[in-house]
Amino acid sequence: MTDAFPDWSTLLPAGRIRDVVRAPAGVLSESGPQLDPTDPRTVQLCADLVATMRVSPGCVGLAAPQIGVAGQAFCVDVSGHPKTRTDHGLIVLVNAEVTASSRNSKGREGCMSVPDLTGDVKRADRITVAGRLPVSGDPVELSTDAYEARALQHEIDHCAGYLFLDRVIGAHGLHHRKVYLDAPDPDSPGAGASRHPE
């Protein structure tokens, strides 16, 4: 078991830019099946996720259901985000699950599949995640915290058929994104899509 991630640019094939599915599409509420991480179709799916994330402004993660595929695969990259403490760079995982977690704290989240809203969601501050690497199928485990931990939990939820809307705290925890896009301070919480896990 390792916590090191390979150079994906040399391992994954060229990815295709895929359309992002929006709620209430049925695939977003399905619990996706586990995938064979060595299957060429899974490898291509992972490459497509990375390519689509890279061209989507402010996106720090994307899961298979968000491009219309019911399955447990996602990518996350919070590099350069001001709220990032631990940064593993580009993370691409198949069949991932949270195996340990700490206390929860509240944070604002948004999602490309719910483009007009953000919400206050409680998530674990520190987590350990286990999964499989595409291509090799090798098991991997990583521990992380803060923003990267939140982004990973958000994407694992997508693979299980949950949106952040399903986790919003209380009646006043949902917000129209426009309020945050218009925030005068670009470093304020929620000031645009780049401030939220995808």
Automatic annotation (TrEMBL):
The active site is at residue 155. Fe cation binds at residues 111, 154, 158. Keywords: Hydrolase, Iron, Metal-binding, Protein biosynthesis. Belongs to the polypeptide deformylase family. GO terms for biological process: translation. InterPro entries: Peptide_deformylase, Peptide_deformylase_sf. Binds 1 Fe(2+) ion. It catalyses: N-terminal N-formyl-L-methionyl-[peptide] + H2O = N-terminal L-methionyl-[peptide] + formate. It is an enzyme of class 3 (hydrolase). The gene is def. Its EC number is 3.5.1.88. The lineage of its organism: Bacteria, Bacillati, Actinomycetota, Actinomycetes, Propionibacteriales. It comes from the Bacteria. It comes from Microlunatus soli. Its cofactor is Fe(2+). CDD domains: Pep_deformylase. Removes the formyl group from the N-terminal Met of newly synthesized proteins. Requires at least a dipeptide for an efficient rate of reaction. N-terminal L-methionine is a prerequisite for activity but the enzyme has broad specificity at other positions. It holds the Pfam family Pep_deformylase. One of its GO terms (molecular function) is metal ion binding. This is Peptide deformylase.
